[in-house]
Amino acid sequence: MRILVLGAGGVGGYFGGRLVEKGEDVTFLVRPNRKKQLEEKGLVISSVHGDMIVQPKMITASENAETFDLVLFSTKSYHLHDAIKDVKPFVGEHTVILPLLNGISHVTTLKEAFGESNLIGGLCFIETTLNHDGEVVQTSKAARLVYGEFMNKDTDRIHKIKKAFSGTKADFVLSEQIERDMWHKFMFITVMSGVTSLMRAPIGPIRESEGGRTIIRQLFEECANIMHAHDAPINENIVDEHMKSIDALGYDMKSSMQRDMEKGSSIESDHLQGYLLKLAKAKHLSVQLLEIIYQNLKVYEKMHMENHF
Ligand SMILES: NC(=O)C1=CN([C@@H]2O[C@H](COP(=O)(O)OP(=O)(O)OC[C@H]3O[C@@H](n4cnc5c(N)ncnc54)[C@H](OP(=O)(O)O)[C@@H]3O)[C@@H](O)[C@H]2O)C=CC1
Ligand SMILES: CC(C)(CO)C(=O)C(=O)O
């Protein structure tokens, strides 16, 4: 199976790297600066699951190449439209697009861009970031990529993908309810990135501070109300389930949005909290905590864009 990883950042670099390590036929679609960096240093992964360094196969958007069987779409949401344009020449009639972005609204965008039948569902649980040298630094235990056919269709292609994903150092999990899993992850990341960026702390001190768990729970409840109002396929007890997951996270666990803010980088505020807020407004729901969380991100963006950092 010819696999194209779109974006050799924290997520694409990690999961793509693990597939290369296993011996799969993986190429990274990268932009010129990242290409240069990877040519000079290789793809370096520093991880609690084992370090690795490899010289990856790469292409850039301007190059000619045949189409691929599978694309791991692993850019940030604010690069989605440009990335769609860049990857189009490498997508054929039978290419499967597997998105790993946080959030949900990109599903519609990708279906429109590539056709509904080319898209499968995906998400990941991992704490990973690029350091100053462009190395993939993966911290904490979870390194899980979840994927599946929408409506749990049983297809040949999903069995082929499962085979390609087996036997790596990362957890690749085939889901029978990928729509539900994506909404659940959307809720989880909205809260996790929201509170950690607002309080500028990892999850441990937040949940252990007086009133911390109450705020986290209230925010989950706001998100669940919005999603229920839109008939999203979420579990009835999802807030309890997510609170258990929050309690199980390592004390020092941070969100990728928070790490991006620490670096002064762009963030996915409109794709995550902003999109959920739009859904709340469409149903006239009062979501005060979500509004504060979103405002905090907008203030950061204003400062960031005006180069106050
Ligand atoms: N990091 C994490 O721990 C987790 C992240 N996620 C989600 O995964 C997604 C990706 O996040 P993450 O990996 O952290 O982001 P990064 O910024 O680390 O990586 C994204 C990569 O995409 C590349 N890219 C952007 N546009 C293009 C393009 N047109 N062609 C080629 N490459 C391109 C960027 O390259 P360039 O260097 O050229 O800018 C960058 O290296 C986000 O939606 C995030 O929310 C989900 C779970 C955990
Ligand atoms: C919360 C976490 C680390 C879980 O994968 C995540 O998705 C992110 O920070 O973007």
Automatic annotation (TrEMBL):
EC number in record: 1.1.1.169
Enzyme kind, highest EC tier: oxidoreductase
Ranges where the Ketopantoate reductase N-terminal domain occurs: 3-150
GO molecular function: 2-dehydropantoate 2-reductase activity
Assigned GO CC terms: cytoplasm
Native source species: Gottfriedia solisilvae
A Pfam family annotated for this UniProt entry: ApbA
Stated name of the protein: 2-dehydropantoate 2-reductase
Biological or metabolic pathway of the protein: Cofactor biosynthesis; (R)-pantothenate biosynthesis; (R)-pantoate from 3-methyl-2-oxobutanoate: step 2/2
Source organism, top-level taxon: Bacteria
GO BP annotation list: pantothenate biosynthetic process
Function, as annotated: Catalyzes the NADPH-dependent reduction of ketopantoate into pantoic acid.
PANTHER family reported for this sequence: 2-DEHYDROPANTOATE 2-REDUCTASE, PROBABLE 2-DEHYDROPANTOATE 2-REDUCTASE
Family in the record: Belongs to the ketopantoate reductase family.
Ketopantoate reductase C-terminal domain mapped to chain residues: 178-301
Keyword tags: NADP, Oxidoreductase, Pantothenate biosynthesis
Catalytic activity: (R)-pantoate + NADP(+) = 2-dehydropantoate + NADPH + H(+)
InterPro entries tied to this protein: 6-PGluconate_DH-like_C_sf, 6PGD_dom2, ApbA, KPA_reductase, KPR-Related, KPR_N, NAD(P)-bd_dom_sf
